[in-house]
Each structure stands twice: as structure tokens, then as C-alpha cells.
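dude i think i finally got it to work??
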Amino acid sequence: MKQALKIGWKFAELWIWILAILYLGFINPSHEHMNFCIYHWTGLTFCPGCGIGSSISWLLHINIKESFSAHPLGIPAFMILTYRISQLSLQFIKQLKNQNYGSEHAHVTTRS
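look at this
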């Protein structure tokens, strides 16, 4: 069990990206939400990343026009994130299989 938790923490990036995509899928992109932008907090008016979360959210709500209006790089960013999630998921599954394979054979005893 401890080893499974250790593997889970090793793949914290995977869980963060999955939760972020789920959050963006469930929110209503037309409403104002919590802003994580440091530029916004400091009062600066220009931020190259502002709107990308809304863009991904609109994309998940299948509204391509609004997605592109919110940020033109939202669609490529979503594709990059889904690729990264798939990479990390495959690594995670491989790690779990290796762990289970090792634990199954660790309990095998031979009779003499």
C-alpha cells in the first residue's frame, strides 16, 4: 500500500492536470472565476496567458468560436495537455504493472 501511495505522489503532475481539465470542464466559462494570474494580482493589464483557461473551458463545452475568442492558443494548449496526460497515464500504468508483477512473484515459494 505504501508503495502504491509513493507511486501516486510520483505522478502528482498527472493528477493536477486531470483535476485542472475536470475543473475547466465543469465550470461555466461565461462567469467570472478565481483568477490565478500573478499579472492580474499585481495590477498589470497585459498577460499573454490570460484567457487560456476560459478558452479550454469553452472548448470542453464544444464552443470553438468562443474558445478561439478567449485565447487563440487554447486549442493547441488543450491538445498539448491531453498528450501530456496520456504520456503520464501510460507511465503510471506501466509503473503499477511492474509493482504488481514484482509483488506477485515475491510470494512464490518453491518446495524442496
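Residues 25 and 60 are 6 Å apart (CA to CA).
im so relieved honestly
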